[in-house]
Design a protein that fits this description.
The protein is α+β, with helices and mostly antiparallel strands. The chain has a domain of about 110 residues: Immunoglobulin-like, CATH 2.60.40. Helices cover about 20% and strands about 40% of the residues. It has 2 helices and 9 strands; from the N terminus they run H-E-E-E-E-E-E-H-E-E-E. It has a 5-stranded mixed β-sheet. The chain has a 4-stranded antiparallel β-sheet with strand order 2-1-4-7, with no helix packed on it. The radius of gyration is 24 Å and the shape is elongated.
Length: about 160
Amino acid sequence: MRAAPYDPVRTLYRTLLIFDVVAILILAAGLVEFLYFEPPGQHTGIKATIVGVFQYEPATNKTFGPDRSAFTRMQLFAALVDWKSLPPNITVDARWYDSFGSVVGKVGPGTPAQLASQPIVPIALPSTLKSNLPGQYMFVVERWANGVPVEILARRIILVERS
């Protein structure tokens, strides 16, 4: 009895089947991750009020100057949030994200009443740096449920200029 001749199409077909199975597994994992971080039915329509983004003096924990959307690398800045604009029965936090998606300043999570004493949310300059990295910084106020953020209630984008 002779062995069947080598068939390159069969090998390619099996390889494609393996790739298909891997692709379906990746798609399923992405769907599970999406449903975990974006559960259906979480949109409430609640909007938070960001009063503005101002220059910040860390020694006094105060903001000053006009509301701005651009800063130089040497200027520290902070967002001012009106926590009273939110319903008292939700859990929220406020975070600064840099261009790399890293959290560079935050307050919370907690109820609006718990965060009322912290309306100023400064950007935290890493101890290894003397100035902010240039790029876009995003400030978000998020609603939490079951220990994870599920809804963005407000957002501001700030530019830190190179020069």
